[in-house]
Write a sequence for this structure.
């Protein structure tokens, strides 16, 4: 009579599969409940137990050959602190600011740090200053007529035009002419003709063109009986050009004749225009 054979021990994975196949179908009307995994059989030997959470044998084992259900994550390398970079053999190297600026310049705009600023070369600032100075110079030359008419700006605009060889309009200040002497007399032998003589001086800081003269005649009651304006071409000698100027401090004498509007002329006045 042969000895009875011990019952065959099936692996745990096969046991679990059989249990899964034998499970009754779930009722659709029943609430969803997560099924608990079956417990490991007590009669399975230690060498037959395999956990789905355990790593393959020989990995992450301790000195006794036992494996752990959970592995410990390896620690991350320490982050570099500040601007120091770790070099070979544990040495530290200070980050170069120029490298940081070049990296910020080449990086896309969405990757640039908010605080990263690019240095502007000095020659670019010099170029901008030169362009601004050239623009101001062009504005001054184009508006030189108005600037030359102002006593405060005429000296420097005159010096600028002296360098650039540009022309300036003559200074015009009629109030700066001073009357030195004047006289109005009848012309002998010519009824109704008057001889006018005057001497005046240019007291302005700059040269002025010859002024226009306004002559007014009055009667004994102070009423103006006649007035006239005489341009330089009317009272200057033909040998003197009307476009010439009187230098500062220069004096001039003029003489011309006018027709008397009435025989009652007793007074006259001069005015520079």
């Amino acid at each position: 009579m042969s000895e009875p054979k011990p019952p065959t021990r099936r692996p745990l994975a096969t046991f679990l599969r059989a249990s899964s196949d034998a499970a009754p179908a779930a009722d659709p009307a029943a609430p969803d409940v997560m099924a608990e995994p079956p417990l490991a059989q007590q009669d399975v030997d230690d060498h037959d137990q395999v956990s789905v959470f355990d790593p393959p044998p020989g990995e992450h084992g301790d000195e006794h050959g036992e494996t752990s259900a959970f592995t410990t994550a390896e620690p991350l390398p320490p982050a570099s602190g500040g601007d120091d970079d770790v070099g070979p053999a544990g040495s530290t190297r200070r980050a170069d600011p120029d490298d940081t600026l070049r990296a910020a310049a080449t990086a896309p705009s969405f990757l640039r740090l908010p605080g990263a600023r690019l240095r502007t070369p000095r020659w670019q600032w010099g170029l901008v200053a030169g362009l601004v100075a050239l623009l101001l110079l062009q504005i001054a030359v184009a508006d030189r007529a108005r600037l030359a008419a102002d006593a405060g700006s005429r000296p420097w605009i005159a010096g600028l035009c002296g360098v650039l060889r540009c022309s300036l309009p003559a200074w015009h200040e009629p109030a700066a002419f001073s009357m030195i002497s004047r006289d109005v007399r009848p012309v002998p032998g010519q009824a109704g003709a008057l001889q006018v003589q005057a001497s005046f001086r240019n007291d302005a800081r700059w040269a002025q063109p010859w002024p226009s003269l306004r002559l007014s005649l009055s009667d004994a009651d102070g009423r103006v009986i006649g007035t006239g304006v005489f341009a330089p071409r009317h009272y200057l000698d033909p040998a003197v050009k009307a476009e010439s100027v009187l230098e500062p401090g220069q004096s001039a004498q003029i003489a011309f004749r006018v027709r008397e509007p009435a025989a009652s002329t007793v007074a006259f006045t001069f005015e520079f225009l």
The radius of gyration is 57 Å. Strands lie at 84-86, 92-94, 177-186, 193-202, 208-209, 213-218, 224-230, 245-246, 251-259, 267-272.
